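Our consortium's second objective concerns turning raw sequence data into structural hypotheses that experimental partners can test. To show how far this objective has progressed, the report includes one record in full. It was chosen at random from the queue rather than selected for favorable results. The single chain below, 431 residues long, was entered without modification.
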Amino acid sequence: MNEAFLHYLWKFLKFEDATSEYGLFTTTGQTIQILKPGMRNQLAGPDFFNAQLRLDGQLWAGNVEIHLKSSDWYLHNHEQDEAYANVILHVVWEDDCAVFDKANQPIPTLALSGRVPQKLLYSYKNLLKRDQKRFINCETDFGEIPASVFEPWLERVYFERLERKVLGVEAQLDELQGDWEAVLFVRLARSFGTLVNAEAFEELARGIPFTVVRKLSTAPGLLEPVLLGLAGLLPEETQEAAVRKWKQDFEFARTKFNLSPGLNHQMQFFKLRPPNFPTLRLSQLAAIYEQSPNLFEVCVQTSEREVFQKILGVKASAYWETHYTFGKPHAARAKKLTAGFTDILLINTLIPVKFAYARSRGLEIEEDLLSLLTQIPLEQNSLVAGFETLRKFDKDALHSQALIQLKQQYCDPNKCLHCGLGNFLLSAGHK
């Protein structure tokens, strides 16, 4: 038994006589009629705000506090806390002592032990039972959850995941003095760095004023050597004419725009597949801005995956057709951004920026975003594959992003009681 389950019982009134006018009593014999259980409080203070009850026929409005035992009231020092002065009901599993408020007045207590149906208790214990062999707690019933419950909940948890990314966008917007183009550049650079070089790529992008990026992108072939030079990737010595020209261009731009090379986060090559080498990714990033200098405007106005694929489907410059690193040539092959990588850029960068910008303008674009997401194929990873063994679902990025959020924020931390799917299984009495 834990308090989260008691919160669930109270919020949804899942105990005997919860909706009865006369069948519910406090531990001292007062009749209780629950009119409103109140709103769940996620911050400090009582667990539920603005509840409405009738105690012995008298209407009360105030807060509800929930504990496993009545004595927890004193264990948590609530009797000394002014925030708990307006508690009108103490809901507990076990009543082991009388409880008084700061004014030494008794607080009505409702004990739930013995009032919860055994079938619900069994379902709760079975759902929350930890088993390292299970992919998720409810895996035996996951495939039986009706689409009318499954689909709306996945949409909701997707927007939870999107909200986290959007908050990051909004924080960077403040840091970059409201420059949306600079925000997009920084976040796009971070995505190009992939997991290994994300911090280094973001540091690099933050170190260049976007006004400079805009000027460099209008001069063909100039942005790439500047990015490579500032990242500390241009070799000190080289016999290759193309690289010597890049070094000259970098020194010219560095002096003209007063740029400072060198990063606190060193660019890493170790354990990366060659297509993800920072040399290639920086070349491709530069190519995007040379091809689409007004990328932010395009991002805001576009809602079709096919259009984004054309915009982002660039290739690294000619030098990288025969190289992955400086001075080590190989047989020629084009180094174009794959459709899979551009989809990742869409999911992790462009869509959050689009949503944040729309929200700042008071625009509602949720339906457009959902339409765009359903155009993007399902992401392929071990987490999504785990869910695919449990049930069939649509093969698009809305579902894969939602399932990632579901697994990381609900399943892994054992928050089944906060999950719409877990709540459905408990209510339905699944075993």
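The partners drew two points from this record. The mean pLDDT is 94. Residues 147-175 form the longest helix (29 residues). Both points have been shared with the crystallography group to help prioritize constructs.
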